[in-house]
Amino acid sequence: MQFLIVVSIHYLSKRAMRKIELKELRQNIDFDIDYFFCCASFEERCFSIAQYLDVTRIKNSIVCYNEDQVNSFKGHELKLQEILKASQNLITIRLNSDKPLSTAEALLKELTAIEKIETKRIVVDITTFTHEALLILFRLLSSKKIPSSNITFLYNNASDYAVNEIENSEKWLTVGVKEIRSVIGYSGFMSPLKKNLLIVLVGFEPERTKKLIDNYEPHAISLGVGNDYCADISSAIETNKQKHRELVQQYPNTFTFEFSVLEPSEAAEALKKEIKKFPNYNIIIAPMNNKISTIGAALLALDNTELQLCYVPARYYNTDGYSTPGSKCYIFEI
Amino acid sequence: MNPFHSTTSTDELTAENAVRLFSNVFSEFNILLNPGHTFLNGARGSGKTMMLRLMQPDCQEIISKRKISHLKFLGIYIGVKDTHLKKTDLGFLKNRHAETMLNEHLLVSHMATKIFSQFSVAQFEQDAICLPQLKKFFDEYFITHLEDCGWIKPASIQYEFKTLKDGFNLMAQITDKILKSFSVFERGIIDNLEKISYSGAVLSYGNFLFPILKQLKTLSCFPQNVPIYLMIDDADNLNRVQKIVLNTWISMRHIGSICFKISTQLNYNQFRTLHGDRIETPHDYSEINIADRYTTSSKGFYKERVVDVVQKRLEFAGVKTTDPFEFFRPDVKQEERVKELFEKYKSEQIAKGKTEKQAYDYAYRYARPDFIRDELKGNRDKYNYAGFEQLVHISSGNMRQFIEPAKIMFDNMKTKLEEAGESNEVGFISDKIQDEVIKKYSVDEFYGEFEKLLKSNLDSIKDEEMRGDNADVKKVEELKKEKKNIEKLKNLIDVLGNTFKRILLSDVSERRVFSIAIQDEPNEELNEVLSFGIELGYFQKYVIGNKYGTGKAQLLILNRILAPHFGLDPSSFAGYKFVKSGELSSAIDNPQVLISKIRSRGVDAIFDSSQHSLFKQESHEEN
């Protein structure tokens, strides 16, 4: 029985999200890990979790990295490997943020090579995978019949975003849009007989959202805003809401809703509730907020295979000051 | 209601509203109506979808005042959204499993569903003959062809219908279900990469779509002996294989039965067919490039169109003032002064024995530039860009560049009225708000974004340099090249903007210059920078005769949205200067050298001193 597809999202909320201090991670992940997945990135957050784990209890550390972005990593990929070298086996996987097919194949190859994967204890640090790579990995894991209790997801919050800009109004994470593409494994069913509803889980990037809406020209738009925050500073929620308000003002007749950025199941529930309002629409969801809510979107998409998840890669990322690591770690199983 | 907000998708507009809102000043529209395959190319917002909407039967019935059975063609609208047909998962089929066949199946199933669903809402006259004809068609053609394509008719279902509408609806539901089955296959490709296997129905143009439509056309309720137009909107959003498949259909030239009307946002970069040859114009299709109409001839036409569109939007939103010139009021004081200069120059010219038209042209050419030069001393902040006329020029032939800032202006005006405790009914936009918005728009939408591109690229380079020996050499080279291109483009735009400003403030005879023509063939480096500029929308490129009349030259028109940023007269696109590519190559590397050369030796030392106009003669109608 596949662990995700068959589980109705109503049951998911029974497994509570745990929020701990990063330094307490060892006490909380107090078991032997067969496979630890993480992703090197230009964000320092890529090694926050690894450095607080008991690496000697990891049998296989799988360090993913986007080969097309490695120039912006400031050596993070080497540092991450250094941190994880005490694990019994260290594997690197080359992904490519411009080539989702290569990314999916690379991840699939690794997962397929794991014998009796359904018996393995897997931990995934979801913090710095791209949204797309994370969705693909999640999709692939979901098809491997792994008991849900055998996979633990970890997420390190950011203390702040766009830290190289002082003024809130100047803060930016990305510039431009390369394309809009469906995410592998979540292509949905787009009926020519239905109108299109674009749902965006709005994050810190209103410009990217605006370009997505302008390019897609959906019949209806629903812009979700986070109702809580996981950044260390509470002003993040207000900044986010302000950006959301500005977006909504630009698109009259836009529907709005709130979602959780701390509980995947709650994010999925919020999306499900929103979708119910549009029974005769093709649903396209762009998860553009944090990785926890992105998992929420994936959960719903696995439950409702007719909806589509899309990804909007940016032309440039604010690699210099995208985020700074927060002090918290979120732990959850699905 | 903000008249400049698009509250409804164009494809959702009722026929009455579409006809009411449509601005029929395009002669292209009439070309599009003619039989034959046509590519309609234009930037987003240039009105392509609206044209296609007007070609659907419900609109054509109103326009031509004829019943559907007497229309000259049947237009079916098929919009292509980014991720509806170009699904990432299909990329896995390449070299694995029937890539072409399955992409064609997806395309045909999608189109067939759209076609039948639009027939189901068309106002076909249902008489005693047509319904039995459709039933016969359904049993003997539709079902049979589907079965020939591998579709298995569900044994438990008896298909029946009592009206034409239900009949077409049923067919749409059946092809939609076929599409749905295919979507299950698509989603599962990733789970079966080693052994992709599709066993469902496979619909193709030759085996299904063409014969079905050809047969349908013989039904008595259909207009007889006229083609069906399959109007594919935003075909750029098809994947490479789907474009090749579509090209192959075009190459079949079935124009008596089916014509493809294909709109693109200038990114349809595939013209090969499955047989390896190319479709070419005018042999296989005709081509309409909307932007050409603004910059190459009939200057007044774009303004007419904006007048028409704005007027209709204001009417539709119930705004009392529907005259665009009244609604977007200019800075009265400024315009009165320009007008005084205009009248003065005109009288002087007539006194010198010039004809009325010559005097008018002279006054038009010099009044505003002289005002900017002599009275404002070229101060960008003092010049007011308000007024419908100027906003039209600034929008550079792209309707969206007019509508977007207009939308912000309307909202700002409304807020201002509310804050002042006045009625929030917007009757006009103050010149101050227009000027503020358009200046900010000029910087934000173009120059600001450009600066961000440069900044983020510089950050990436800096990151890489910190990696020392671990750097990805190839990637570094690419990044540095990209950085250079961004810098060079910025330099080029700076040089051109400043040069055009210098020309505007100079004593030369044509001071309203916004374009350059390159005298000789640019080198690869310059070409790359120019292409990058075109891709980002800073330039429009055209080909004109060279100054010697012996060949062709590239003409580059700077986007006039940059006029407020550089303090230029936005109406000044008529003139252009020839320049040697070597000067531009030096400008992209070191703008200061060229700028100081121009400063010390004058514009004419670098740019060809003779005057050229995109248009033979200034026209009274334009002004």
Task: Give an overview of the whole structure.
With 334 residues, chain A is of the alpha/beta class. Chain A is built from nine helices and 15 strands. In chain A, helix 6 links the parallel strand 9 (195-201) and strand 10. Chain A is globular and about 55 Å long. Chain B is α/β, with parallel strands linked by helices and 623 residues long. Chain B has helices at 15-21, 27-33, 48-54, 57-64, 99-121, 130-148, 164-188, 205-216, 240-251, 292-295, 300-316, 324-327, 332-351, 356-375, 388-394, 399-419, 431-466, 473-504, 524-535, 563-566, 581-589, 591-601; strands spanning 38-41, 74-79, 228-233, 258-264, 286-289, 513-518, 539-545, 552-558, 575-579, 612-613. In chain B, strands 2-3-4-1-5 form a five-stranded parallel beta sheet, sandwiched between helices. The interface between A and B is large, with 61 and 52 residues.
Task: Describe this structure in a few short sentences.
Chain A is α/β, with parallel strands linked by helices. Chain A contains nine helices and 15 strands. At the A-B interface, helix 4, helix 5, strand 8, helix 6 and strand 14 of A face helix 5, helix 7, helix 17 and helix 18 of B.
